[in-house]
Amino acid sequence: MSKSKHPLRDLLLVFTVWLASLFFAGSLFEVYFLNLGMSLHEIYLADVLWFLAAVLLIPFFKGFKTKPFILFGIAITIVSVLALLLIKDNSAAYIFRFFLGATHFFFWVPFNTAVYEFRKENNATLSSILTSFTPLLSLVLPAVSGIIAQDFGYDVIYVASIVCCIIAIIIGIFLIEDREYKYDFRTSMKSISGLKSLLFLDGFSISTIGSVTLPIMILDFLDKPQDVGFFLSLVTVFAIVSSFFVSYASDKSQSRRKYLLVSALGFSIAAIFSSQVSDIVLFFIGFGLVNFFSKLFSPLSAALAVDNSKKLADTIAAREFMLNAGRFSGGIIGVIIFLLFDLQATLLFQGAFFLIYIPIFELKRRKLLHI
Question: What tens digit of pLDDT does each residue of 136-186 get?
Fold first, then answer.
């Protein structure tokens, strides 16, 4: 077991290096396979596979150890990226997304459990720190990846991704504390009673729109890696600062309700707006607003689950299961709407559907604490 005096800092260091590998490998996923000749429908379906593995894995485990699971999750990332590096046809998209989806369990569940062990009364601020790593790296790495891919080829960024993973594994071997956690799936699901439908909706709309639908819609406007990379980097700036302020205010008041509901409503309106525009400037504004409200919402949603947790491992495992069940369901329905209509109709449905989060939240209030 690591005897580090700064276990949280060490976890975040491993996380940051691993997250950089995901940006190198994944931020240009859609445009890479578009240029390889894959249709948008096929790309959408491949993206949806990202959420399947965790749904299959979580019910069949009874616990986990922090260090070996996190390191295995990083190793799975290497295997996923090798598919992109070695297989130059459309099958690589499905292999990459499915195997990478296993990290939702092997990396995210033990990582989040270990990190939230350090919580006091600042769950939303801690959640905001975690979720802000993504937009912080988004300021730089998508643009850098786009430049490298356009000038030197995609293989260079895939090699960079693997190198980041190797560095993360080396750091993790020496620095991550090895703690063991037990959970029971049925007990875990009971531990989030009152939150299951809310977490499902979070995954169904928030995650699916941000991770699948909007990144594919970018391809209606841009088809060069450098342009896509710069676009993704530019839309993240304001969301970072705002997420910290709202999360801090939520922790101070210990009331999540008003912040959650405002960000949920704002997200839905922004998604609906984005589905109705055909100009790249208006789409940029819409994408930025969706990103802004999702970054406000996500740490508060995570904190709400942790606030009410009696056994952290149960809560984190059940939360990850419900999020991914929602993501996969939202993705499958999104594929069907996309096939029958178009991508704009898919985004319109997903954004409008999330409006039911507000009345369901109000109905569930009596089962929840700290709201």
Answer: 787 889 999 999 999 999 999 999 999 999 999 999 999 999 999 999 999
- Residue 346: half-sphere exposure toward Cβ, Cα within 13 Å: 28
Other C-beta atoms closer than 10 Å to the C-beta of 311 total 15
User: Between 1.20.1250.20, 2.10.109.10, 2.60.40.10, 1.50.10.10, what CATH number should domain 7-367 receive?
Assistant: 1.20.1250.20
Closest residue by Cα to residue 353 from 324, 336, 330: 330
Q: How far is CA 342 from CA 203, 245, 337, in A?
A: 21, 37, 7
**What is the C-alpha R_g of the chain?**
19
Torsional sign, CA 219, 225, 227, 233: positive
Instruction: Answer whether 266's CB lies under 8 Å from 205's CB.
Output: no
Helix (H, G, I), strand (E, B) or coil at 64: strand
- Cβ atoms of residues 158 and 87 within 8 Å: no
Low-confidence ranges of the chain (pLDDT < 70): 1-4, 119-135, 237-255, 366-371
Distance CA 193, CA 371 (A): 15
Q: How many helical (H) and strand (E) elements, i.e. helices and strands, does the chain have?
A: 22, 2
Q: How far is the C-alpha of 199 from the C-alpha of 207, rounded, in Å?
A: 11
Element (H, E) at 182: strand 180-182
pLDDT of residue 1: 44
The model's pLDDT over 195-206, given as tens digits with 9 standing for 90+, comes to 999 999 999 999
Paired tokens of 141: 């790495």
- Domain limits of the chain? 7-367
Is residue 117 within 8 Å of 309, Cβ to Cβ? no
